[in-house]
Amino acid sequence: MKKAIVEQHRVLESLFAESEAALAGTGAEAMAEALGALRETLEAHFELEDTLYHPPIRTLRPQHAPTLRSIAEGHGRFITQLTEILGRVTEGAFPEARRGFEELSREFAAHEAVEEDLMRTIEVEAHGA
């Protein structure tokens, strides 16, 4: 499970980089396309985590339930932020979209770090048990 999540995070990091590059330009269509692809991939990733990966962890390692709850809450927030950024692009408010994306990128990187740390912790617990 850890390997799959980390691999997905690397794909997401690539999409974040592509979106950042598109936002550095001036073409609203390219920006919207990159952000749309990122949103679709994030939604699919979050769905996997929330329905496939996290439920067994909650069952087998209930001590991690608060962290998992926080992670799941972040998922909704990230989609909302990205939708708002897309709206700013549509409105032509590019500087605001760029600032919003920078904030989203920082928060998502921290989110990924928490998830990956949790996966490492669970792996250590499983091998130690």
Write up what this structure looks like.
This protein has 129 residues and is mainly α. The longest helix is centred in the last third of the chain and has 35 residues, at 94-128. It has a single domain (2-128), classed as Cytochrome c/b562 (Four Helix Bundle (Hemerythrin (Met), subunit A), Up-down Bundle). The protein has helices spanning 2-24, 28-60, 65-91, 94-128.
**Overall SS class:** mainly alpha
For CATH, the homologous superfamily is named as Cytochrome c/b562
Element pattern in H and E: HHHH
Q: Total helix count?
A: 4
CATH architecture: Up-down Bundle
Percent in helix: over 70%
Measured between the Cα atoms of the first and last residue, the distance is 18 Å
- How many strand units? 0
Largest sheet: none
**Spans of at least 5 consecutive residues with low confidence:** none
What sort of overall outline do the alpha carbons produce when their principal axes are compared?
A: elongated
Mean pLDDT: 92
What is the third-level CATH name, the topology? Four Helix Bundle (Hemerythrin (Met), subunit A)
Q: In short, what is this structure?
A:
This protein is mainly α and 129 residues long. It contains 4 helices and no strands. The longest helix is centred in the C-terminal third of the chain and has 35 residues, at 94-128.
Summarize the SSE layout with pairings:
Elements: H1 2-24, H2 28-60, H3 65-91, H4 94-128
Helix pairs in contact: 1-2, 1-4, 2-3, 3-4
